[in-house]
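Quarterly update, task 2.4: zinc ion-bound model.
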Amino acid sequence: MARKPTYQAALDEYFAEFEKAVAKALVSGAEIAAAAGDALAQSRLVGGIRWDQVNRAALALVTQYAKDVARGGSLCTVRRDDGTTAQEFVPWLRDYTETARNALVDLVEEHIASGQGVGALADTLEPVFDSMKGHAETVARTEMSRIRNDAAFGRYLKSGVDRVEYLVGPEPCEICEPFAGTIFAVNDAPWLPQHPRCVCGFAPVIDVPPDEET
Ligand SMILES: [Zn+2]
């Protein structure tokens, strides 16, 4: 890039702090989300919740998550061109702050070029900060859903559950609606969340008397 604005360094510093703050908020929220997911899974499986186990499982999950977020992203489900899905490390936190930083630099440069005053600059920047706030909330909700589902799924696997039922929220989106009520073998179940702000989950399919099996 040719331009070398003097405020670039100040913005870099600001966004480094911002990134750290977002990462910290995500990791502290993740512990609660993991405990909630694991507790929900246990109550579905056995009816009673072993909190000593929940805390241990949540801690193990969040330890890995904290390492990922420190790298500026997390393991996310990605859709390949052939329609299959896979889990990959996606550096969304890094991309997110870089995009926001570039948007700010562009706005400030345009503003300076247009010769308007500092008061007008605040008005120009406000929507950028508003959209960052909105985006941060989406990121947080999506990440918490991911952690909750990972914790629940981990508990199902440990308990020997081999099939799960796909549960949708009260107003399922068009991506998730076709999955509602579908029974998956645990190895074929899609990773959740399927999209930002997805609230879907899985319930274990538990075989009771063998004569009720089809
Ligand atoms: Zn969904």
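Highlight for this quarter: The pocket of zinc ion is lined by residues 173, 176, 194, 198, 200 (CB under 6 Å).
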